[in-house]
């Protein structure tokens, strides 16, 4: 044993002795693509409620549901028209309340998505702003244009989806939208905006919701001068400061939100904060701010042991400075699926989503290889101290659907980049549940509508039904890992790195070890150790094959699983 990284668990436990969220496994439900109960091709609450037994059997502690609020769907629900109701195509508010109660009966907590950076252009506030009602435009960011006629945008900011971040009204004024034009940015310097969102949090907490994932948590506050950002190089959105992102004023907002949450029992926030480094991320996790934040460097790391270890070390060290747990994520609805990221050659740098998508046309994927690596990565993720998030379909080993027809794509990225970046639709394809042909049980057998995004014709072996009884399936691996994780890794022990050959990383947490081989040659395992769980079958003879992982117990401390 060569190096120890201080565990965050001890400090978190001392601050929150009964904090469920410090070690939870959370399952992300992208509701449009989870399960369709009424046959319209769109996932809904009826479908979600029908799958609660599946989620309970999987062994997760909580679900995070992507926005379920009324929305025109300019950005798949992240353009919210009403934060206190349910999107009609998903169901009703009463059905939402019933889902929360049913999940709680099964021991599953419920985390909702909150979208505070912007609203829908059909939100009543923005509609009032368009009518130029007194004070209405102060809730958003309206500015006069530049140039003699005011026909140039107020600054050079670009939308995250491509193109300018400003749109002009017929009256000549411009409004800011860091995403789609249908998603106008709110003015978080306005006290009414702050009060409204604190009341929205209370509304859902009162209905039993256990927490919120905060969309674009690094947004909200802008440099008040709205200065030009200057030329931005590809991929720099995660490494270079920007006057629209990660401004210090945002932390005052989250101190207010933490006070709201602390008035209830066991509520939690998780931040989606894309920031230049983990030192900046740690600022969101100070004791009077947010509880957790996604560790996105983990999903950006290539399948290389040195890169993965560097990310883990940095994440744990920075989280420990503020007494927070690290929050590990391999995939979500905004990035290419894990199987696909690992299906091609692996670079020597962190991977940006646009870089990854750009190489799809240049290099054929090997999904069998990607799936093998993704299985190993799952054991690594679930062995680390802290919280783990699983995106729906990861437990089925699904790959990105790269070849969707252009005419079915719906992601605004596709349109705002002038049809040059295919966007995120490929990781949002409805997941397969059963049967041998589309829609694979996603919709009822007599559904009259096609799924909102088409499923590939080769997914029959990857349905939950096909995998449920297979001892070597990805689903079986996840179920077994989630069953064993509390017994072996619910421990205050941090990460203690072990000596390994190049291409291999291994660490101990107490009497349990996790070994991961990203190299091309088998690696020797410790003599006398016992295999608890392997990412592939047949790990014997003291050797760990390439692109595989294993949990080991020291002699006398466990049995083979």
TrEMBL record:
Record-linked Pfam families: Alpha-amylase
Residue ranges of the region described as Disordered: 225-244
Alphabetized InterPro entries for the sequence: GH, GH13_cat_dom, O16G_dom_2
GO molecular function, one term: alpha-amylase activity
Protein's UniProt keywords contain Transferase: no
An individual GO BP term: oligosaccharide catabolic process
N-terminal signal peptide: none
Start and end residues of each Glycosyl hydrolase family 13 catalytic domain: 28-428
Alphabetized UniProt keyword annotations: Glycoprotein
Family under the similarity heading: Belongs to the glycosyl hydrolase 13 family.
Protein name: Alpha-glucosidase
Organism: Rhodococcus wratislaviensis
């Amino acid at each position: 044993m060569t190096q120890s990284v201080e565990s965050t668990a001890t400090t978190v436990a001392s601050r929150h002795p009964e904090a469920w969220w410090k070690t939870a496994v959370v399952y992300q439900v992208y509701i449009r693509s989870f399960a369709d109960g009424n046959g319209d091709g769109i996932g809904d609450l009826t479908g979600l409620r029908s799958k609660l037994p599946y989620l309970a059997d999987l062994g997760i502690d909580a679900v995070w549901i992507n926005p379920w609020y009324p929305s025109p769907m300019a950005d798949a629900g992240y353009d919210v028209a009403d934060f206190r109701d349910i999107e009609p195509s998903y169901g009703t508010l009463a059905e939402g309340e019933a889902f929360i109660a049913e999940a709680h009966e099964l021991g599953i907590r419920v985390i909702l998505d909150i979208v505070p950076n912007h609203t829908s252009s059909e939100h009543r506030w923005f509609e009032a702003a368009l009518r130029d009602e007194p004070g209405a435009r102060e809730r958003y960011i309206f500015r006069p244009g530049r140039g003699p006629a005011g026909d140039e945008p107020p600054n050079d900011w670009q939308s995250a989806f491509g193109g300018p971040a400003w749109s002009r009204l017929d009256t000549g004024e411009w409004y800011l939208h860091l995403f789609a034009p249908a998603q106008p940015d709110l003015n978080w310097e306005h006290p009414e905006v702050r009060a409204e969102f604190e009341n929205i949090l209370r509304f859902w907490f009162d209905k039993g919701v256990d927490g919120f994932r905060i969309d674009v948590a690094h947004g909200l506050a802008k440099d008040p001068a709205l200065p030009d950002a200057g030329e931005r190089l590809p991929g720099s959105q995660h490494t270079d400061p920007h006057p629209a992102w990660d401004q210090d004023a945002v932390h005052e907002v989250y101190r207010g939100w933490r006070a709201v949450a602390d008035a209830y029992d066991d509520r939690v926030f998780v931040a989606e904060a894309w920031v230049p480094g983990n030192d900046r991320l740690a600022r969101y996790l100070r004791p009077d701010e947010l509880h957790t934040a996604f560790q996105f460097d983990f999903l950006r790391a290539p399948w290389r042991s040195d890169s993965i270890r560097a990310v883990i070390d940095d994440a744990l060290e920075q989280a420990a400075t503020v007494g927070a747990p690290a929050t590990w994520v391999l995939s979500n609805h905004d990035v290419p699926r894990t199987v696909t990221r690992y299906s091609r050659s692996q670079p020597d740098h962190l991977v940006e989503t646009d870089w990854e998508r750009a190489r799809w046309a240049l290099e054929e994927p090997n999904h069998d290889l990607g799936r093998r690596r993704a299985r190993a990565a799952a054991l690594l993720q679930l062995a680390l101290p802290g919280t783990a998030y699983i995106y729906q379909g990861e437990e089925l080993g699904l790959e990105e659907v790269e070849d969707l027809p252009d005419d079915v794509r719906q992601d605004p990225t596709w349109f705002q980049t002038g049809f040059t970046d295919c966007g995120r639709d490929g990781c949002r394809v409805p997941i397969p549940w059963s049967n041998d042909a589309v829609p694979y049980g996603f919709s009822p057998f007599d559904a009259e509508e096609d799924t909102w995004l088409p499923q590939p014709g080769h997914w029959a072996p990857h349905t939950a039904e096909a995998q449920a009884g297979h001892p070597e399936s990805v689903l079986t691996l996840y179920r077994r890992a989630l069953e064993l994780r509390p017994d072996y890794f619910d421990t205050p022990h941090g990460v203690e790195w072990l000596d390994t050959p190049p291409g291999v990383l291994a660490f101990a947490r107490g009497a349990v070890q996790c070994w991961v081989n990203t190299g091309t040659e088998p690696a020797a395992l410790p003599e006398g150790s016992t295999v608890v769980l392997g990412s592939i079958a047949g790990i014997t003879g003291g050797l760990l094959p390439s692109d595989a992982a294993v949990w080991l117990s020291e002699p006398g401390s466990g049995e083979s699983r």
